[in-house]
Every structure is written in C-alpha cells, then in structure tokens.
UniProtKB/TrEMBL annotation:
Domain of life: Eukaryota
InterPro entries given in the database record: GEF6/7_CC (IPR032409)
Annotated Rho guanine nucleotide exchange factor 6/7 coiled-coil domain residues: 8-53
Pfam families per UniProt: betaPIX_CC (PF16523)
Origin species: Mytilus galloprovincialis (Mediterranean mussel)
Identification of the protein by name: Rho guanine nucleotide exchange factor 6/7 coiled-coil domain-containing protein
Amino acid sequence: LTAILMNPHVLIAEEEKIIVDDGGDPTMLQEKSLVDTVYSLKDQVKALETNKRNEFVFYKY
C-alpha cells in the first residue's frame, strides 16, 4: 500500500489505448485513445439527450 501511495501510477491519456467495439461485428474492433473514446462518448450522450428531448416534445402534443 505504501508503494502505491509513494509511487502512484500515471496515465497519459494520449498514449493509453483501448479496444472499442464499433458495431455488432467482432471484426469491427478498433484501437482508440482514451481521449478519442471520451469525446466519442460525450457526442453519443449529447445525441441521446437530444433524441430524448425531441421524443418528449413529440409526445407532449
């Protein structure tokens, strides 16, 4: 525990990569940086919020 506190691990977001499934096809795996993934998720959340807001307005009338 002391070693972790004295020498914390550092993530450099531009250098860290993750494997992302872009679709239902297992051959569609892509390697993306954490930064790219965060921005992609941010865009997806924004689109979902917009869709939800539009559905609410549609059902309201």
